[in-house]
Amino acid sequence: MTTATPGASSEAGGSAVRNPGKATVALPGPLSLGLARGSTELRQFFRHKEQVVFTFSLPAVLMILLGSILDGPTALAGVTSGQLLAAGMIGSGIVSTSFNSIATGVSADRETGALKRLRGTPMPSSSYFIGKMVLVAVSSLAQTVLMAAVAVLLFGLKLPSEPSKWLTLVWVFALGIVSCTLLGIALSSLAKSTTGAVAVVQMLYLVLQFISGVFVTPITNLPKIMVDIASFFPLKWICQGFRSVFLPDGAVGMEMAGSWELPRVALVLGIWCVVGAVLARLSFRWTDTK
Fold first, then answer.
1. Whether residue 129 has pLDDT greater than 60
2. Among the listed residues 82, 80, 173, the one whose alpha carbon sits nearest the alpha carbon of residue 133
3. How far apart are CA 83 and CA 246, in angstroms?
4. Which residue would you say has higher pLDDT here, 30 or 185?
């Protein structure tokens, strides 16, 4: 908060303080600060080579192993179990990069005092959130490209040939990373420590992968009650959106509703973006309360 002094004035587009005889000093807006923070986050991330290798290789290796073990024909000619699994795991990778990594990363920033130091700068919490989204967007895009390439080479997954499917890929990707990043930030404030955050996140992520049709394909093989529970969370809809992009139109018959339900995918993910933003804003704290 900027305290005005006699003769001080504010200008649209940023905070400014004007004193007689002195030049006006304007602070960058939240978006500019957030993008600058995102650049810093990216440099810090790619500086740790072990973390980069693990982040990108683990989902791809897991997809190769499970796809090779579970691959086989399905009820739809031309679509294999490996392709179903790969399409779902590409979507699941977004949740791993956003929700999982952010929940544990923000908790670690708070535990090590990094957030406390940032609190002493002009950067608001919204700019910190934007910075994390920049990191997630870049790392998720790289991971999606890597996993799609592996799926195409090893499991014969087809890249979309229609502009409408590429558009679907873009908006499912965007809504997925925004909603899951914000939820990860919110969850980081609920955990008492980084160790606790890791345990909670991994448990939630693993359970949701099973009941959202990532590992069990097609999703119609799951009990309806499990799919109904998964329908309350973003992962199920992200994976469904990605299956609509990477699988032929005939594969829609292997969905629980017999439809890709793309308007519903957009609605649910959009709601989670709003809910995530509210929860992140209300629960976020710069320091440990212990």
1. yes
2. 173
3. 9
4. 185
Mean residue pLDDT across the chain: 87
How many CB atoms are located within 10 Å of the residue 198 CB? Answer: 16
Task: Please give the structure tokens belonging to residue 256.
Answer: 């629980």
Specify the residue for token string 């990778």: 93
Confidence band for 16, pLDDT divided at 50, 70 and 90? very low
Does the pLDDT of residue 24 top 70, yes or no?
Answer: no
Region of residue 218 (left: phi > 0; alpha: psi -120 to 50; beta: else): beta
Cα–Cα distance measured from residue 76 to residue 59, given in angstroms and rounded to the nearest whole number: 26
Residue 184 pLDDT more than 70? yes
pTM of the entire structure? 0.86
Question: What are the residue ranges spanned by the domains of the chain?
Answer: 30-283
- Check if the beta carbon of residue 45 is closer than 8 Å to that of residue 52: yes
Residue 213 in tokens? 């049709």
Location of structure tokens 């359970």: 207
**Type of residue found at 257:** A
- The tokens describing 241, both together, are 């959106």
Cα(282)–Cα(83) distance, rounded to whole angstroms?
Answer: 40
From residue 53, alpha-carbon distances to 48, 57, 77, 149, 205 in Å are 9, 6, 36, 17, 20
> Which residue in this structure is represented by tokens 């990069």?
97
